[in-house]
Amino acid sequence: MSRLGDLIHLERTRQGLTFKQVAKKCGVSDKYLQEVEAGTRIIADDQARRILKTIGLREHTEADFTLDDIASTVDLQSAVPRLRQMAEQAKKTSDPAKEAKAQAPVAGSIWLDALSGVLKNVPIMNAAMKCTGHRLLPVTDGKICGAAPDKVYYYTAPDDELQGFRIRRGDLILIVPAQSPVDDSLMLLETPYGRLLRKVKVLPHFQAMLQKFGASCESEIKNFNEITIVGRGVRLEADL
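Above: the chain sequence. Below: its structure as tokens.
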């Protein structure tokens, strides 16, 4: 089954609809819809979007994912067991209000609830710590790069002071929380002049060497109690 087929199948079965009912809604034949769901028929993007929207999926979901984001990022087949379990639990509920919610048209569909546990819209912050956009990242065992998903963000390199370390202005560095210096790591520091990225070398006697490498390599040595670390860079994303 294709990813498109997964989406159609999960939403069709969640709503308890037959092939005939969905096909009629979408203005296609039963056989056509069965082939699309089975992944044996390739269709144009606009037709795929029309079918998904017709059965209740919106262009932008409540989690701020687009259909394109989901299709290109998630292997929905891996989510099927959990989705089926959630669907069965919804059917067994004795609360009429919950039953009505489970059978209602998609507002926060059951598969999207599951996706919220495997994807996170991570904010992109500029040097002033203002959000300028988002990037989708996978969540593994409830974490992103070992950190709580709501604690990570991308920091946009504001200049070329680290170009010697292959980090240029506009590049995105994924930041996870950190309070202590990590040897030979890229750390985000809080200073009176704003936040700065520096390569850190841990020295004896609770000292750290802070390095930048623009036109030339420069460094300064600080005591641990003289620096405030707010995060560690764990991933670099750059445009070629």
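The chain has two domains: 3-115, 121-237.
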